Amino acid sequence: MYVFIDDSGDAGFKLAQGSSQMLVIACCIFTTAEDAEHVARTMRDFRRSLGWNPLQEFKFSKMSDEIRLSFLSRLSHAPFVVRALVIDKTSFSLESRAVPSSASFYSFAIQEALSHASSLLVDAKVVIDGKSSKSHSKSIGVQLRSYLNRESQTVAKISFVDSKGNQLIQLADIMSGTIRKAFDVHSKGRETYLLALSPYLKGPSSEIREHGIR
């Protein structure tokens, strides 16, 4: 079992200085290596159909609406499950006695997202986007494994990788960006993205959990 995780938004709490109001953590879950390779191959084929360089990264923030929606349509019946956590940091900070640091909040969000998906996971290999400094601390992986494996072997391994070299982290990037746009009531084109997201949520295993969303 394999889980690929990326986020949209940021873990900062300086909302008046540009920190995002929402943080989304998306988990793309594959039962087998064959399913994961099938999706990676579909992504490579789609990249080729666009005439892109084979090394060009699928990144939600750098793609047009047209390409995003085509991507989502192409992968809408692919063999993976989406579990995601959507956090409204405004509500979270009001509920907390103290505003957490970016690092501790990011760790909390990953832990909550994986806990939300734990009923699906057995001996899972978890891969998290580790390009930025937010996830460079090896202690995050140790803490997550310790917490998630309290009662059963939910997670076998946690690693951090650069999304540029990993197709399925790029998939998680697209899913997290899509979910954030679909759940942001102020987002232009929100209804279009909600519609594009709907096929990914039809199965009984896919689910989006909201924290502090009103």
- SSE order, as H and E? EEHHEHHEHEHHE
The CATH topology:
Nucleotidyltransferase, domain 5
Q: What's the CATH class, please? A: Alpha Beta
CATH H-tier superfamily: Ribonuclease H-like superfamily/Ribonuclease H
Q: Which ranges are low-confidence, i.e. pLDDT below 50, for 5 or more consecutive residues?
A: none
Sheet of most strands: 6 strands, mixed
Averaged pLDDT, please?
A: 86
CATH arch. level architecture: 2-Layer Sandwich
Q: How large, in whole angstroms, is the Cα Rg?
A: 17 Å
What do these coordinates show?
With 214 residues, the chain is α/β, with parallel strands linked by helices. It has one domain: Ribonuclease H-like superfamily/Ribonuclease H (Nucleotidyltransferase, domain 5), CATH 3.30.420. It has helices at residues 33-49, 65-74, 89-95, 102-117, 138-148, 167-183, 190-197, and strands at 2-9, 22-30, 81-88, 124-129, 155-161, 207-211. It has a six-stranded mixed β-sheet with strand order 5-4-1-2-3-6, with helices on both faces. The radius of gyration is 17 Å and the shape is globular.
How is this structure best summarized?
The protein has one domain (2-211): Nucleotidyltransferase, domain 5. It contains seven helices and six strands, in the order E-E-H-H-E-H-H-E-H-E-H-H-E.
Q: What order do the helices and strands come in, and which of them pair?
A:
Blueprint: E1 2-9, E2 22-30, H1 33-49, H2 65-74, E3 81-88, H3 89-95, H4 102-117, E4 124-129, H5 138-148, E5 155-161, H6 167-183, H7 190-197, E6 207-211
Parallel strand pairs: 1-4, 3-6, 4-5
Antiparallel strand pairs: 1-2, 2-3
